[in-house]
C-alpha cells in the first residue's frame, strides 16, 4: 500500500538530514520534492500545492520551538497534515434507526456488493446487529446471485425479487420484511454502471427518496486515482452521501484517491477495503493511514485485527496446553487458519513499522502455508496429537503423502519444536524481547 509514495517522501526528508535548522531555502527544496511525490501519487494539483504551502508555514513557524531535528520535524508536520487532509478524526456511521437503512452507491466494479457483505459481517459481529442485505440491481441477475452467495457465506439473509424491475419497490418491500422479521439493519446494494449515467442517477435518487436511509455510503475503487475523485464529486452532487468507502487498498494503489477525496467532496472516508475476503474491511482512521503512508506501520490496526480473530477462550485453553507442553499439530493448524483469516500476508506484514519497506520487493505468497498444511494433513490423528511419535519411517510416509520431501517434513517438525519451546518460555514469564532474541 502506497509504497512508492512512502519511498519518495522518505527521500525528500533525507534532504534535510544533517541540516542545523529549517530555512526558507532547504524547506523549499524539500517541499518541491514532496509536492512532486504527491503529484506522482495522483494527488490533485491544487491539493498538493496547498498541502506543501501549509507544511512550509508550519515548518518555518515551529522551527525555533522544538528540539526535533529538521528532518524529524518535517516528518511530524507532514504526518499531521496528511492526517488532516484525510479528515483528522474517525467518523462513525449512523446505525441508530429501527431498522436503520444504509444505501450503497457507486460504479459497477467498484466493489459495492463485496463491501455490502463485508459491512453486514462487521456490524453483525462487532455491533451486535441483525442485518438484512438487499439486492437492488435489477439489470444483472449475476449481481443478485453474488450477493446471495456472500450472504450465505457470512450467515446474513438476502432479500431479492428477480421478478421485479423496480428497485424502489424492492427496497421498500425489503424494509417491510426487515421490520416483520426483526432485522434492525438493512443494507441496500444498488445497481452501478460502468460510468456515470443519468438513468442510474435518477434511479438511485428515487430509491433514496423512497427509503430515507440513515446513511448513504459511496463506494469507490482506489486504484482509479483522480477518476475516483471525479466520480465521488458527481455522486455527491446528486446524492449528498454521508461517507466514502475506498476499496482495493491492498493493490498497488498510489494513494491519490485516499488523499484527495476528502478535500474535494468534504465527506469523510469511513471504511477501506483491503482484500477480497469478507473480513478484509478496516474502519478508516486518518492518523493511522498517515502512519502507513510514511512507513511508520500501523501496529494499532494490526493488533485490533488479531484481537478480532483470536477468541479469548481459545487463547486461554491454548495457553494451558502450551504450559503443559501439549501444544500439538492440530493447534498449529488452527493457528495457521486464524492468521489466514486476518488477511493478505504482505499487507499484514506492512503494518509492522519498518517491515513494509523491507518487503517491498519480496513476493510473499499467500499460499505460503499450503505446503505446511499439506504435510500436517498427511499425518495421522495420533501423530498430530503426539508429535514425538513421528520417527524416520513415519516422516518418509508423511513426505510421500503430502508431495513434499523428507527435508521439508524435517524442517517443519524442527520449526514446530522450536515454536513449542518458545511458547513455553513465554508462558513461563518470558517476554517478547526474549523471544525475539531467541529467534535472531
Ligand atoms: P460491484 O460491481 O460494485 O458490486 O463490485 P464487486 O463487489 O462485484 O467487486 C468487483 C471486484 O472487485 C470483485 O472481483 C471483488 O472481489 C473485487 N474487490 C472488491 N473489493 C476489493 C478489495 O478491497 N480488494 C480487492 N483486492 N478486491 C476487491
Automatic annotation (TrEMBL):
<dbReference type="InterPro" id="IPR004780">
    <property type="entry name" value="SRP"/>
</dbReference>
<keyword id="KW-0733">Signal recognition particle</keyword>
<protein>
    <recommendedName>
        <fullName>Signal recognition particle protein</fullName>
        <ecNumber>3.6.5.4</ecNumber>
    </recommendedName>
</protein>
<dbReference type="InterPro" id="IPR036891">
    <property type="entry name" value="Signal_recog_part_SRP54_M_sf"/>
</dbReference>
<dbReference type="InterPro" id="IPR042101">
    <property type="entry name" value="SRP54_N_sf"/>
</dbReference>
<keyword id="KW-0694">RNA-binding</keyword>
<dbReference type="InterPro" id="IPR022941">
    <property type="entry name" value="SRP54"/>
</dbReference>
<dbReference type="InterPro" id="IPR004125">
    <property type="entry name" value="Signal_recog_particle_SRP54_M"/>
</dbReference>
<keyword id="KW-0687">Ribonucleoprotein</keyword>
<dbReference type="GO" id="GO:0006614">
    <property type="term" value="P:SRP-dependent cotranslational protein targeting to membrane"/>
</dbReference>
<keyword id="KW-0963">Cytoplasm</keyword>
<dbReference type="GO" id="GO:0003924">
    <property type="term" value="F:GTPase activity"/>
</dbReference>
<dbReference type="InterPro" id="IPR013822">
    <property type="entry name" value="Signal_recog_particl_SRP54_hlx"/>
</dbReference>
<keyword id="KW-0342">GTP-binding</keyword>
<comment type="subunit">
    <text>Part of the signal recognition particle protein translocation system, which is composed of SRP and FtsY.</text>
</comment>
<dbReference type="InterPro" id="IPR003593">
    <property type="entry name" value="AAA+_ATPase"/>
</dbReference>
<comment type="function">
    <text>Involved in targeting and insertion of nascent membrane proteins into the cytoplasmic membrane. Binds to the hydrophobic signal sequence of the ribosome-nascent chain (RNC) as it emerges from the ribosomes. The SRP-RNC complex is then targeted to the cytoplasmic membrane where it interacts with the SRP receptor FtsY.</text>
</comment>
<keyword id="KW-0547">Nucleotide-binding</keyword>
<dbReference type="Pfam" id="PF00448">
    <property type="entry name" value="SRP54"/>
</dbReference>
<dbReference type="Pfam" id="PF02881">
    <property type="entry name" value="SRP54_N"/>
</dbReference>
<dbReference type="Pfam" id="PF02978">
    <property type="entry name" value="SRP_SPB"/>
</dbReference>
<feature type="binding site">
    <location>
        <begin position="106"/>
        <end position="113"/>
    </location>
    <ligand>
        <name>GTP</name>
    </ligand>
</feature>
<dbReference type="GO" id="GO:0005525">
    <property type="term" value="F:GTP binding"/>
</dbReference>
<keyword id="KW-0378">Hydrolase</keyword>
<dbReference type="InterPro" id="IPR000897">
    <property type="entry name" value="SRP54_GTPase_dom"/>
</dbReference>
<feature type="binding site">
    <location>
        <begin position="247"/>
        <end position="250"/>
    </location>
    <ligand>
        <name>GTP</name>
    </ligand>
</feature>
<dbReference type="GO" id="GO:0008312">
    <property type="term" value="F:7S RNA binding"/>
</dbReference>
<feature type="domain" description="SRP54-type proteins GTP-binding">
    <location>
        <begin position="268"/>
        <end position="281"/>
    </location>
</feature>
<dbReference type="GO" id="GO:0048500">
    <property type="term" value="C:signal recognition particle"/>
</dbReference>
<dbReference type="InterPro" id="IPR027417">
    <property type="entry name" value="P-loop_NTPase"/>
</dbReference>
<feature type="binding site">
    <location>
        <begin position="189"/>
        <end position="193"/>
    </location>
    <ligand>
        <name>GTP</name>
    </ligand>
</feature>
<comment type="similarity">
    <text>Belongs to the GTP-binding SRP family. SRP54 subfamily.</text>
</comment>
Amino acid at each position: 500500500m502506497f509504497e512508492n509514495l512512502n519511498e519518495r517522501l522518505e527521500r525528500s526528508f533525507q534532504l534535510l538530514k544533517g541540516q542545523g535548522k529549517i530555512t526558507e531555502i532547504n524547506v523549499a527544496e524539500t517541499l518541491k520534492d514532496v509536492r512532486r511525490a504527491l503529484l506522482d501519487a495522483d494527488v490533485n494539483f491544487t491539493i498538493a500545492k496547498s498541502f506543501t504551502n501549509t507544511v512550509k508555514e508550519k515548518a518555518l513557524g515551529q522551527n525555533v520551538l522544538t528540539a526535533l531535528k529538521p528532518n524529524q520535524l518535517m516528518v511530524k508536520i507532514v504526518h499531521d497534515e496528511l492526517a488532516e487532509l484525510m479528515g483528522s478524526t474517525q467518523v462513525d456511521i449512523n446505525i441508530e434507526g429501527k431498522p436503520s437503512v444504509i444505501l450503497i452507491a457507486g460504479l459497477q466494479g467498484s466493489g459495492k456488493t463485496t463491501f455490502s457483505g463485508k459491512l453486514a459481517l462487521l456490524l453483525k459481529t462487532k455491533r451486535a446487529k441483525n442485518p438484512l442485505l438487499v439486492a437492488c440491481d435489477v439489470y444483472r441477475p449475476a449481481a443478485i446471485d453474488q450477493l446471495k452467495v456472500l450472504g450465505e457465506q457470512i450467515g446474513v439473509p438476502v432479500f431479492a425479487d428477480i421478478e421485479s424491475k423496480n428497485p424502489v419497490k424492492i427496497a421498500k418491500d425489503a424494509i417491510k420484511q426487515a421490520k416483520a422479521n426483526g432485522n434492525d439493519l438493512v443494507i441496500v446494494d444498488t445497481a452501478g454502471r460502468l460510468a456515470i449515467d443519468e438513468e442510474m442517477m435518477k434511479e438511485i435518487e428515487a430509491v433514496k427518496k423512497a427509503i430515507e436511509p440513515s446513511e448513504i455510503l459511496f463506494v469507490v475503487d482506489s486504484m482509479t486515482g483522480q477518476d475516483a475523485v471525479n466520480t465521488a464529486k458527481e455522486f455527491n452532487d446528486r446524492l449528498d452521501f454521508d461517507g466514502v468507502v475506498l476499496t482495493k487498498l491492498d493493490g498497488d494503489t498510489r494513494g491519490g484517491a485516499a488523499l484527495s477525496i476528502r478535500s474535494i467532496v468534504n465527506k469523510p472516508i469511513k471504511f477501506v477495503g483491503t482484500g477480497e475476503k469478507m473480513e478484509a474491511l478496516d474502519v478508516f482512521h486518518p492518523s493511522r493511514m498517515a502512519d502507513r503512508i510514511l512507513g511508520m506501520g500501523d501496529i494499532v490496526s494490526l493488533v485490533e485485527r488479531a484481537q478480532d480473530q483470536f477468541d479469548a477462550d481459545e487463547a486461554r485453553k491454548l495457553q494451558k496446553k502450551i504450559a503443559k507442553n501439549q501444544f500439538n499439530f492440530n493447534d498449529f493448524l488452527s493457528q495457521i487458519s486464524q492468521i489466514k483469516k486476518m488477511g493478505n500476508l504482505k499487507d499484514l506484514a506492512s503494518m509492522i513499522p519498518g517491515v513494509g519497506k523491507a518487503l517491498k520487493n519480496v513476493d510473499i505468497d499467500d499460499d505460503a502455508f499450503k505446503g505446511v498444511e499439506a504435510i500436517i494433513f498427511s499425518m495421522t490423528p495420533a501423530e498430530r496429537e503426539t508429535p514425538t511419535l513421528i520417527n524416520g519411517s513415519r516422516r518418509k510416509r508423511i513426505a510421500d503423502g503430502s508431495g513434499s520431501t523428507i527435508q521439508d517434513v524435517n524442517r517443519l517438525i524442527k520449526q514446530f519444536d522450536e515454536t513449542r519451546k518458545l511458547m513455553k518460555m513465554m508462558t513461563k514469564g518470558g517476554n517478547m524481547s526474549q523471544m525475539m532474541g531467541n529467534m535472531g
